[in-house]
Amino acid sequence: MRSLSVFSFFLVLQIALAGPAAAQGAPARKLQQADLNYLLFVMQGENATEALAAIAELGRRKTPESLDLLQMQLLLGYPPAMTKAMIQALGARKDPKALDTLVFYTRHRAPELRAEALVALCELDFGKETAPQKTINDLLLGALRDYDESVRNKAAWLVGRRRVAEAEDSLLKLFSTGSAAAMQALGFVGGIRTARALALAMENTRASKEPLITTIGTLLSRDDFGPEPVRVQLVQILGETNLPGAQNVLMVYHGSGPDAFPRSRKLAFQILSK
Predict the structure, then answer these.
(1) How far apart are the C-alpha atoms of 218 and 152, rounded to whole Å?
(2) Suppose 181 and one of 14, 44, 153, 159 were both cysteines; which one would form an S-S bond, judging by CB atoms 3.0 to 4.6 Å apart?
C-alpha cells in the first residue's frame, strides 16, 4: 500500500507541474499505457478514485487477457461501488464471453448489482445468435417478479427497449400496481389488452393522464399494433381528452403514423380540425 501512496505523490506532483489542462489527462494516459499487473495493483490499492479509473480502463481494452482479469476480480468480491463499476465495464466491452459472469450477478443479494447486471447483459453483442438473447429475455421476465421494486422497474425498461412481447402479462400486473416503468414499457410491447387497460385508466379521474397519453402515443406509432378498430378507439379517447399532450399525439399520428391504418389517422385529423 505504501508503494501506491508513493505513486500517488509523484503523480500529483507531475500534475501540479504540468498545469490544470494536463491534470485531467495525465492519470488517464498513465493507465492507458499500464500493463495488466499494474492495473490490478491500482484496483487493489487504497485510492478508490484510481481503482475506479483502472476498472474503466479494463472496460476499454479489447484483449482476452484484460477480459479474464476483469471477470476474475469481479468474482473475487469487492466493495459495492467497485463491483458495480466492473459490471458496467463488462457491459461496455460487449463481449459475449461475459455472459455467465453477468448471469451469476443477476442473482446477487444486492438489488443494485442485480439491476446493473441486467443492464450489462443487454449490452452484450451476440451477433445473429438467438439462444443467448432468449436466455437474457427469460432473465428479464423473471426479474419483473423480483422482490425489489428498483430491479422490477429496470427489467421493465429493458424488456420495453428490447421489444419482448412475452412480457405483456407481467407488465400489465405491474401497471395495475402503479408502476410507471411498466406503463412506459407497455407502449413498446403491448397489444389489445394493453389498449383496454390504458382506456380504463384514462377514465379514472384520479389517474395522471399525461403519462398515459404518452404510452398511447407509443402504441399508435408502432406498425405492429392493431387492429384498426382498436386504434380508432384510442384516437377517440385522445380526442375527448382536453390536454395539450393528447393534441400533440394526434398531430404526430396524423402526420407520420403507419400508412396501414388510414382510418384512425383520418379520424385524428378530423378531431384536430374541429
Answers:
(1) 21
(2) 153
| H or E element that contains 173 | helix 168-176
Asked if 155 and 143 count as a contact pair (C-beta separation under 8 A), the reply is yes
pLDDT tens per residue, range 60-94: 988 899 999 999 999 898 999 999 999 999 999 99
- pTM attached to this predicted model: 0.84
94: region left, alpha or beta (phi > 0 left; psi from -120 to 50 alpha): left
d(CA 232, CA 226): 10
Cβ atoms 262, 226 nearer than 8 A = no
Q: Element (H or E) spanning 201, and its range?
A: helix 192-203
Q: Whole-angstrom Cα distance, residue 159 to residue 185? A: 7
Counted residue by residue, the chain has a size of 274
Instruction: Give the integer Cα–Cα distance in Å for 208 and 190.
Output: 20
